[in-house]
Amino acid sequence: MYNGEYEYYDDSMGWPAFFIGVLLGGGGALLLAPQTGNQLRSLLRNYAAKTKGEVLEQGKSAWDTAVDKGKEYYDKGHDGVQGKGRSAREFKETAKERLREAS
């Protein structure tokens, strides 16, 4: 909505990202351009296989960590529940004894 004043819009934040993208894209093109189609496909295939292996390894590591943490939290919660159950039983027995003594 126009309220009679001009709003200041600073779009200068997009320029550094644009120039970084241009530099990375140009660098990638220069590195890969001198190769033939077969060489480029082979290179990309090797990169993809290497990346796939790394991603699978990191995923497995993350899964193992999550499972270990889950077991740890389960055990901690289980012990806490058992302790509270024990405390409740002790409280109940103490209350019964005091009722007997009071009668």
Helix content: over 70%
Task: Write the element-wise H/E pattern from the N-terminal end onward.
Answer: HH
Distance between the termini: 80 Å
Rough outline:
elongated
Strand content: under 5%
**Roughly what is the average pLDDT, rounded to an integer?**
79
Unreliable runs:
none
The count of helical stretches stands at: 2
- Based on secondary structure, the structural category is mainly alpha
> Mind summarizing the main beta sheet?
none
As an assembly, this protein is single chain
Tally of DSSP β-strands: 0
Radius of gyration: 33 Å
Model description:
By secondary structure, the protein is mostly helical. The chain has helices at about 15-30, 35-100. The radius of gyration is 33 Å and the shape is elongated. It starts with 13 loop residues before the first helix and ends with a helix.
Give a short summary of the structure.
With 103 residues, the protein is mainly alpha-helical. The chain has helices spanning 14-32, 37-102.
SSE inventory with pairings:
Elements (H helix, E strand, L loop, with lengths): L13 H19 L4 H66 L1
Salient structural properties:
103 residues; mainly alpha; 0% strand
